[in-house]
Amino acid sequence: xxxxxxxxxxxxxxxxxxxxxxxxxxxxxxxxxxxxxxxxxxxxxxxxxxxxxxxxxxxxxxxxxxxxxxxxxxxxxxxxxxxxxxxxxxxxxxxxxxxxxxxxxxxxxxxxxxxxxxxxxxxxxxxxxxxxxxxxxxxxxxxxxxxxxxxxxxxxxxxxxxxxxxxxxxxxxxxxxxxxxxxxxxxxxxxxxxxxxxxxxxxxxxxxxxxxxxxxxxxxxxxxxxxxxxxxxxxxxxxxxxxxxxxxxxxxxxxxxxxxxxxxxxxxxxxxxxxxxxxxxxxxxxxxxxxxxxxxxxxxxxxxxxxxxxxxxxxxxxxxxxxxxxxxxxxxxxxxxxxxxxxxxxxxxxxxxxxxxxxxxxxxxxxxxxxxxxxxxxxxxxxx
Length: 384
Prior knowledge:
Blueprint: E1 2-9, H1 13-24, E2 27-33, E3 46-50, H2 58-64, E4 74-76, E5 79-82, E6 88-91, E7 98-102, H3 110-120, E8 124-127, E9 139-141, E10 150-158, E11 164-168, E12 178-184, E13 187-194, H4 201-215, E14 221-230, E15 239-240, E16 244-246, H5 262-278, H6 282-289, H7 291-304, H8 308-320, H9 326-333, H10 337-350
Parallel strand pairs: 1-2, 1-9, 2-8, 5-11, 9-16
Antiparallel strand pairs: 3-7, 4-7, 5-6, 10-13, 10-14, 11-12, 12-13, 15-16
């Protein structure tokens, strides 16, 4: 057993994946979680782990980072998309486009599955642990998003509809974003994701729900409201004092185009653990394995935001005309060097994250989330 204790702040997917890998390599691991359980900020809603941004299937990816599939995990391939005029476009894939998972405190959620794996590996979790200072030694900060660059408003419900997914592109119901329907084994999630006009979320959701009824014959039983948000930014300060590593959305790791961040979160947790185990640079690992995809997603977000409803219609027409949309998606996430070099400066100039001061890097500061200077979205104030 390694006598060094690694402290992990936050028990989301990034923190738990890091904990699992460290414990399996004989490290003492303590996870500090401020809530009484994992997944409490979710409400049993369905989300997707993207399978389009890489040629490596999610199943193989999870195996490579030491994660067992002991949670709801369902592949989804062919599906329908609808434009602003409610026209349907059927798309096809040669392998799953994404894998559906459940979030929250239910037994078969991703969150609970990772918690079980961490506990079985010997990880110690301290519940309701409100840290105000980063502990001594090696620390991984996995406290999740600090601001909202996109928000989701939706419902979960019971239904008799078959397993199915659908997407909706229309700035009237999802400004610069999308609405989505996910159905699995008698339960469903429907939500609209807004990348702007946040104060209009309720009106957008109401219009989106009306569009759903116009396009999909689905019964909605026992609906329950839920909401969420994602945070995206480029953080050059991934490590502090060669001992504190920032992972997941705390480090800005998020897909800027669609907000599919779970793959980034788990990968960053794994890379942080690997950096500690192998005594190599976590920041360099992220530069190699995560940064290129994030840059591509930012370019894609910049281009998507310029389309509007007529542009969405053209994109959907192209996708529906393809026998397999995965190569098209993967090409957009593996931009050539010339295209990236020419477009990335414009995308970075255009993008303005809502969180301006990402991490406290002041000398001798041991804050978790600090208000040292202008930290507009910090939530924990400490003595720095």
